[in-house]
C-alpha cells in the first residue's frame, strides 16, 4: 500500500491517548491520537495475517505505525497451549511514533491460552475482546485456569467484550458448502472486520487481497469475505460496542513523497536489489534457510527480472561458498543467515578477508546460544561479528536502526564492500526483520552511484620493463586491491587462503610480509570513510547542558528515542546518539564521548557494545541490558535512564 503525505512538524513524546467525542447517528465516534492493538490466538488462528491486513489498511489510511509480530518457536505447538500462542501488536497514530507500544489498549484473545499469555502486558481499563466459544472447561484447564476468568471477577478492572466469534462466523457462512471446521478457519476475518469497524479502517484493500489470495478457490475467497463483512456489520449493529474510534492520518509527520508499509527484511531485500542496479552488477544470493532471515531468500527469488540469481544451498557453508565464488566472478554477492549460521560461515568469511573480495554477510540476529530462541530477537552477535574468525580478520560492521532503515543499511554495506573490496557484516535482528513501519520510496536519482571499475589490463611494470598484472597492488586512497574478473586476458592470478605476497599475490611465508599484510588489511578497515556520529542534544548552548549521553546501536533506536522524548518532556536534560557503523567506529566518537560525564548504553545483550567502548576509549560506560527475547519498552528505558542520571 502506498499513500501521499505532506511536510512534517516535530512531535513530542508518544504520550497519553487523547480523545474527542463526536456523535454520529446512534453511535459515538471518539477521536484518538494513537492506539495499540494486540491480536492473539493459537498459531493456527491466523493472527499474523489478521495483523498484517490491519496494518496494510492503516498504512493506506496514512497513519504512522509500528508493529511487533511475536511467533511461537515451535512449528506447530499443541493447539490451545501457552507455547503455541501467536500475537501481533500494532501501534498507530496521527503523529510520529517510534515503537510498537509498551502495552495494548485493546487485546483480542481468541482462546484462553491467548488471554493468559498476554494479560501481564494489558493495563487496567483496557478493552479485551474474547472469543467466548473457546472458553470450554477443557481449554481453560489446559492453561491452568481453575475457574473461568470471564466469570470469576478477575477481569473486573477491564472493559471486556465477550463475543462468540466462532459461532457467529459459522452462522455467517452457513450458506456456503463448507464443513464446520472449514468455516471456523475464517473467524480471524470476522475479528478483523470487527476491529476494522471499531477503528474506521479502510476495507477495500482487504477485500482485494482476499480475492487475489484465494483466486483459485473462489468459494474460500467468498467465505472469508463474508466473514470479514459479518464482523464489520456486527460492530455496527451490536449494543456491546456503543463507540467506534477514529485516528486521523499523520498528515504532518512525514516529508512529502510516496509511502508504503514495509518490514525490515523486505526493505533489506529491496536495498540489495537497488544496490546491484546502482553498481550495474548482477545480484547473487547464496543462502540456506534459517529463521528469521529466510524471508530475504524468498523475496529475492521473485526478482529475476532485475538480474537477481538466488541459490538455496544444502547448508550454510555451501551457501557462503557459492556467494564468494560469485563475488570472484564479478557479482554483487550476498549470503543471509542468523547467528548459528554465522558460526558455520566463519572460515569462509576469513577466506573472503584474505581474498579481499566484496561480499555481504547479512546476520538477522536471534536469541542464542546455539539454536536458542529462533523466533525471538536479540543483539548478541556483535562480538561474534567483530572477532568470530581465526587470525586477524577485520570486517566492517553496519547495523540498521529501524525496519525502513534496513534499505539504506543494505546500500551502505554494499558501498563499503565494493569500494574497499572486503566482506561486510550487516547486523539486523528479528525485531527489525518482522516489524514494519512507513517507508518513503526514494527517487532513483537520490541513490548513490555504486559502480566499480574492473581491472582491464596490466597495472605494474617490473624492473626489466615488463608490464604485468599484480592482483594485490592497492589503491592509494582505499587500499583496495583490483577486482579482476576471471577470463579477462592477461589477468590470470592465484587465489586461496594461504598468505599472499604484497603486490604480486604469490604465496608467501615470509614473516615480515605476513605482518605487513595483516597490518594493511587492518588499516584498510580502519580507513573506511564513514559519516561522523550525529548527536541529538538540544541542551547545547543552553545554561542547563546535559551531562548524560545515551548511546545505542541497531534496533534499540526506537525504544531509546521514545524514552529520551519522555524524559525531555518531563524537563530532564539528556543527549542521544546512535551508531550505524560499528567497525570502524565514526572518527568523532572519542570526541563525542568526552563531552559527557555519563554514558549509558542500552543493549539487548549483556553489554557487548559497552565492552568495546570501554576497551577502545577507556570510558566508564554504564550498561543497561535485557535478553528476554523482546525489545525494550519505552517506559522501562525512561526509568532506567532517569536512575542513571540521578545516580
Helix and strand arrangement:
Blueprint: E1 2-5, E2 19-24, E3 27-32, E4 34-42, H1 47-61, E5 64-70, E6 85-93, E7 106-109, H2 112-118, E8 127-131, H3 137-142, E9 159-163, H4 165-172, H5 180-184, H6 187-198, H7 204-213, H8 218-237, E10 243-247, E11 257-263, H9 264-279, E12 283-287, H10 294-300, E13 308-312, H11 316-328, E14 332-337, H12 339-355, E15 359-365, H13 382-387, E16 397-398, H14 405-420, E17 423-429, H15 430-434, E18 436-440, E19 460-461, E20 467-468, H16 511-526, E21 535-536, E22 548-553, H17 557-569, E23 575-579, E24 581-583, H18 589-593, E25 598-603, H19 608-617, E26 622-625, H20 634-646
Strand content: 15-25%
Radius of gyration: 27 Å
Number of helices: 20
Shape: globular
| Biggest sheet descriptor | 7 strands, mixed
Annotation, overall tally of beta strands: 26
Fraction in helix: 25-40%
| N/C terminus separation | 47 Å
Q: What's the overall average pLDDT, rounded? A: 94
Q: What is the spatial order of strands in the main beta sheet?
A: 13-12-14-15-17-16-24
Q: Based on helices, strands and strand pairing, what is the structural class? A: alpha/beta
Low-confidence stretches: 1-25
